[in-house]
Write a structure and sequence with these properties.
Blueprint (H helix, E strand, L loop, with lengths): L6 E3 L2 E3 L6 E5 L6 E6 L3 H17 L7 H17 L1 H12 L3 H21 L5 E4 L6 E9 L2 E5 L5 H14 L3 E5 L6 H12 L7 E3 L4 H5 L1 H4 L5 E5 L2 H12 L4 E5 L5 E4 L5 H13 L11 E5 H15 L20 H16 L3 E4 L17 E4 L6 H4 L6 E7 L2 H8 L7 E5 L3 H10 L4 E4 L18 E2 L4 H6 L2 E9 L25
Parallel strand pairs: 7-8, 7-10, 8-9, 10-11, 12-13, 12-17, 13-16, 15-16, 17-18
Antiparallel strand pairs: 1-2, 3-4, 5-6, 6-20, 11-19, 14-15
Helix pairs in contact: 2-4, 3-4, 3-6, 4-5, 10-11
This protein binds nicotinamide-adenine-dinucleotide and betaine aldehyde (BTL).
Nicotinamide-adenine-dinucleotide binds next to helix 7 and helix 9.
Length: about 500
């Protein structure tokens, strides 16, 4: 592959049709990471055609599911072998600390291993049709050609949550990663190719969403679009997909409450509140961006949170002392800056942060960990996703009030409750309208546990058995093994006329 032939279409590395390229810079210091091809509409159409042809040929879709599973297990092994290469590429594109990228690659490996094992386990089911004259079964089949669109914050992880189940189910795919973070997607295509995935089954297009992504939701030859990204983009994709009634899966943003009761383990709750809000500089869909704390401990809790937030060390991916890294781009930092300014203008109190990195850090897009208190429900900082290192503080007096505040969002991705009262923990978990609830923890996710959102956090689920089901069609095959004349219409032979039998419903 030459550095500017980085589209992967029909088993070949190719340059874009018009020779367009994009430079990728590390957000930590602005250094050039690489130059990649920028797909045109014609390139995306070529990728869709390749995926369609591969699917229709049955090169992968007709491979027995256990064999597809074995292939995914080999992908997991390949990821283990190439972990350092993948982690380094992820870190340079995102600016995140190398240890975080290494953890991501381990999680991606676990995802491929999980779907590799799941692939052949569920072929469908026999249905009791209520008569011995009928054999009836549900069988699972691939959806067809799937467009997979992923964001920049966990570039390969979010893509893997789509690639692994889509391939396990026998689909052909076109991956469109964020234009800001393409390098691990390139490495993934190379790995799939090296392991012998038939040509056309996995294709890669790179570039801006409006050109390289849009056809994946509008083109009639794409059967499904699976998207992870922002709410507004998700709405555009869902509307576009509606014209051809595609299957749509959406993993969108969150405005996630982290509810702390007075009886929580104080040190664990503080430590995890920092983690919830500031890991990866808050660029996490499930970030605990809304601290909802019982009024009786709010002052002590927030004072300590602020003290510790100010001690968080910012730094580049390979700085051993760094605890978190930069924002992804200058444009994103401007957005976070404006978001904090708007919150302050609306009456929030800035307790710490709200500034850019200085000195050596000025070369990157650093933003200091920010705590805003004295916020009111309805303020933009309480409603809108910051996707940066910003946490707001709200307080409550009762369980009911805690639940009301925690559910007061159009989103519904994730939330946490901290208490040592086991009954209360379960009561709150049951009442929170979010796709993941942590009790006395924050952020873990498991390949075997479904991930996704209530409300405007999305449609469908990734991971777990439902994450595979998203990429299946269910087909009902009904066989009458003792066919009879129904006598329903008048042309039926007179010998069989009489009271017509009603066709089975
Ligand atoms: N729910 C989850 O699991 C999850 C996980 C990670 C990130 N996210 C969300 O992702 C967002 C941040 O990511 P982002 O800034 O990359 O999001 P984004 O919506 O700007 O972009 C996501 C992807 O969509 C593409 N895109 C943009 N416009 C498009 C269009 N018209 N048609 C097709 N594709 C298009 C982009 O190029 C990119 O690849 C946050 O809101 C975050 O909460 C959600
Ligand atoms: C889904 N997760 C938590 C890995 C990343 C969200 O941005």
């Amino acid at each position: 592959m030459s550095t500017t032939s980085t589209l992967f279409i029909d088993g070949e590395w190719v340059a874009s049709a018009d020779g367009g390229t994009r430079d990728i810079h590390c957000p930590a210091d602005g250094e050039l990471v690489g130059t990649v091809s920028e797909a045109t509409t014609a390139d995306v159409e070529a990728a869709i055609a390749a995926a369609r042809a591969a699917f229709d040929r049955g090169d992968w879709s007709a491979v027995p599911a256990p064999e597809r599973g074995d292939f995914l297990l080999r992908v997991a092994a390949g990821l283990r072998d190439r972990k350092d290469q993948f982690a380094r590429a992820e870190t340079l594109d995102t600016g995140k600390r190398i240890i975080e990228s290494e953890i991501d690659i381990d999680d991606i490996t676990a995802c491929f291993a999980y779907f590799g094992k799941l692939a052949g386990q569920d072929a469908g089911r026999i249905v009791d049709a209520g008569t011995s004259d009928v054999v009836s079964r549900i069988q699972y089949e691939p959806v067809g050609v799937c467009g997979l669109i992923s964001p920049w914050n966990y570039p390969l992880l979010q893509a893997a949550w789509k690639i692994a189940p889509a391939l396990a189910a026998g689909n052909s795919i076109i991956l469109k990663p964020s234009e800001l973070t393409p390098h691990t997607a390139i490495l993934m295509m190379q790995l799939l190719h090296d392991l012998g995935l038939p040509r056309g089954v996995a294709n890669l297009v790179l570039g801006a969403g409006a050109v390289a992504g849009a056809p994946l939701s509008s083109h009639p030859d794409v059967d499904m679009v699976s998207f992870t990204g922002g709410l507004e983009t998700g709405k555009v994709i869902a509307a576009s997909a509606a014209a051809t009634v595609k299957k749509v899966a959406l993993e969108l943003g969150g405005k996630n409450p982290n509810v702390i009761f007075a009886d929580a383990d104080f040190d664990a709750a503080i430590d995890n509140a920092l983690n919830a809000a500031f890991v990866h500089s808050g660029q996490v869909c499930s970030a605990g961006a809304r601290l909802v704390v019982e009024a009786s401990i709010a002052e002590k809790f927030v004072d300590e949170l602020v003290r510790r937030a100010q001690l968080i060390r910012l730094g580049g991916p390979f700085d051993p002392d760094a605890e978190t890294g930069p924002l992804i781009s200058a444009a994103h930092r401007d957005k976070v800056t404006a978001y904090v300014a708007k919150g302050i203008a609306e009456g929030a109190r800035l307790r710490c942060g709200g500034t850019w990195g200085e000195g050596d850090l000025a070369k990157g897009f650093y933003f200091t960990p920010t705590v805003l208190d004295e916020v009111q429900r309805g303020m933009s900082v309480v409603i809108d996703e910051a996707f940066g290192p910003v946490v707001t503080v709200e307080t409550f007096e009762t369980e009911d009030e805690a639940v009301l505040i925690a559910n007061d969002t159009v989103y519904g991705l994730a939330g946490a409750v901290w208490t040592q009262d086991a009954g209360r923990a379960q009561r709150i978990a049951n009442r929170l309208r979010h796709g993941t609830i942590w009790i006395n923890d924050y952020h873990p996710y498991l390949p075997q546990a479904e991930w996704g959102g209530f409300g405007q956090s999305g449609v469908g689920r990734e991971l777990g058995p439902m994450g595979l089901a998203e990429y299946h069609e269910a087909k009902h095959v009904y066989q009458n093994i003792n066919p009879q004349v129904t006598g329903w219409f008048s042309g039926t032979d007179t010998a069989t006329k009489g009271t017509p039998s009603i066709p089975q419903q």
